[in-house]
Amino acid sequence: MPRQTRARIDLNALRGNFRLARELAPGTHSMAVVKADGYGHGLEAVAQALTQETDCLAVATLEEAQRIRQVGLSPEVVLLEGVHEPSDWRLVVEGRFQPVLHSLHQLEGVDCVPGNGAVPVWVKCNTGMNRLGLDAEGVETMVLRIRETPGLEVAGLMTHYACADDTADAMTGEQARRMRAISREFPGLPVSAANSAAHFHGNESHFDWTRPGIMLYGGTPLIGRRGPDLDLRPVMKLESRVIAVRTLAPGETVGYGATWTAEQPTRMGIVEIGYGDGYPRHAPNGTPVAVDGCRCELIGRVSMDMIAVSLEACPQAGVGSSVELWGETVSVDEVAQLSGTISYELLTAVSPRVPRLHESGEEA
After folding, report:
1. Which stretches does DSSP call E strand in 183-293?
2. Per its UniProt record, what InterPro entries does this chain match (predicted)?
3. Tens digits of residue pLDDT in 61-117
4. Is 256 among the residues known to form the active site?
5. Known binder of ligand: residue 267?
């Protein structure tokens, strides 16, 4: 029998999470962020599902944008990192993409853009993230250059919040204030600022276009909260099965480094998943997994292809029992917190050898 490790993707939950994002930011437009292979959920299927909800998607790279077009989808596609080489402009024109520009050097090669067809571009503003983006003076120069360039038009202004995951942090409000000051110099241009976390702030941080990302996939964007706490539905169920069972005697250890020792007779199951599949190697002893729907605990170090779990909480479990690593019973945010990371990393790290099974493509 083939290996049973797989990721089930609930596209109805994905669409439901997008609708929640819309409810949280009334009066705005939303571009659904599907970068990093749809946050590990499968770009093409995710894009197809979300084009039923919005006519604008956002990706990081040209390659991702091209994959959307290759499956026959025609929404607006925003390139969050813009162009990297002068030759990219030809691909932008061919694919009808909207690059985000953060530096004047990105205008090199734009002479290939036909003057009779406007290519919308966004201008990235640095309001405090200090990653990509232009200061107020640089924004003015960029907007002027774009307006002077045949074939280009300014689609809008964009910025990114640094601390929106902490609703008590004042920096989001300060960045929003700076963005309003910049945008006042360009009346009529829409502004995109709100990432997933900012949907849970006040309307002052939303502006005209929001960019929901991790929240679409059921992961929390907020410190100290989990997706279900925010009415977000898990989209990915990472699952496997028990392939062996043994009973450990007191004093016996498990796995590499002998990091877990049985204190009493312990029934243990071996599950066919490991860090080669994207399960976090640093998940500690006690990390929850669900065996036949019962919450059990990881014991011993995660191997490349296997993990060990205590079956003491699930006495009926045996070879062939189903195992949920995260999903409905175990939140991906819980596993991420225990592993010292965030759900973004866990979801995007699920390896290509794990099949994605996309389900509920249509509303029931």
Report:
1. 191-192, 209-210, 236-248, 253-254, 260-261, 266-271, 288-291
2. Ala_racemase, Ala_racemase/Decarboxylase_C, Ala_racemase_C, Ala_racemase_N, Ala_racemase_pyridoxalP-BS, PLP-binding_barrel
3. 999 999 999 999 999 999 999 999 999 999 999 999 999 999 999 999 999 999 887
4. yes
5. no
